[in-house]
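hey can u run this one w/ FE2/S2 (inorganic) cluster bound, need the structure tokens asap thx
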Amino acid sequence: MLSAEQNERITQVGPGTPMGEMMRRYWHPIAASVELNDDTPTTEIRLLGEDLVLYRDAKGTMGCIEPSCPHRKANMSYGIPEPESLRCPYHGWLFDETGACVDQPSEPAGSRFKDKVKMKSYPIEERGGLVFVYMGPSPMPVLPMWDLFAWTNVGRRIEATVLPCNWLQCQENSLDPVHFEWLHRYYGNWVMARKMPPAQREEWAKRTQGKGRDHIKVGFDRFEHGIIKRRLVEGENEDDEYWKTGHPILFPNVLRVGGSDLHQFQFRVPIDDVTTYHVCYLVDVPAEGQDAPEQTEVPYWYRPLNGPDGRIDDRWVVGQDQLAWVIQGPRTDRPTEKLGATDVGLIMFRKMLEEQLRVVEDGGDPMNVMYEQPAAGYIPLAIEHARYPKGFNEGIQETRIGMVDVVKDLKEVPA
Ligand code: FES
Ligand SMILES: [Fe+2]
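ok here u go:
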């Protein structure tokens, strides 16, 4: 159980708050590259409690600036893209992506007034079809080359949803394997039995029968990029990859998950204290010996939270997760929660959050802030029962169980 102050400490993300300052040490995806184009060159965004304007200028350079023009405060989301700059619609002042004012057409010839005018701006990097923003101090870290961004001969796609809840609810759920039995199996099957077209219900019941077996034990290992989550379910032993490999939670706000040929990141990006931009970054590995269809751009789909009935769309696994996060309320009331035996993973994660907050408060770099890419060019991550594209993530099918921090036996292993 946390005090009200501790709950605020780990959920508030505005400037000057402890978690806000830590979150500012990371690059965050806040849009898809294809969203900024000739038809819609500007968009209003909100990230870590700050309203901003994102734009692509007439040469394709992207900028992220404060929304109000310094002159008479017109909103720059109505700006006109020009080469290497954005022009305010009201009196034509021109700004580059560093926020510098580079032209004031109505000021007297020779005036240097523009040199005194500067807007707040943040650096941008486009990677794998996503637009990342860095809002932290110098020196600026690199945007880590996680495996899914480095792979070649794969298909990529992006699905995003804005959620009316704090980012930490999403992330804590990734440290809670046991919810699978109830949220996805019991509740999920109950939902599908009512919402599926009647003709498909029998087939659905057959397909899901026996799926999602009970957990025998769960385990959580600290590793250099976060926590590895393991589970042992009925009918399996410790040689199964669900136990010996597991999958990672990347500190502080990313889940790396997958299986078979579909891999994904889930980025839980704090828009503000009670709103999250949730990005599913999906990567398909083609069948052995096949080539992935060529992509000139990464497709993007905004997936609304609510379904056709106006309630949260719970007909798919991530939708059920989103339901669980949102129905805890805008910010989970942690001071009154009652944690049970299966909550060991999220307790471990909260301790890691506090530890890393102190690292930042002491002037250090928190986990996953890095200033150069690894020598191998990317960071491979092991995932249970996954197939990787040729030449990538080789030799990492097992993660180091020697570092086990927490194992919780939930049932006796049958003899
Ligand atoms: S308000 Fe932007 S140029 Fe005047
Ligand atoms: Fe889930």
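The CA atoms of residues 159 and 301 lie 5 Å apart. anyway lmk if its weird
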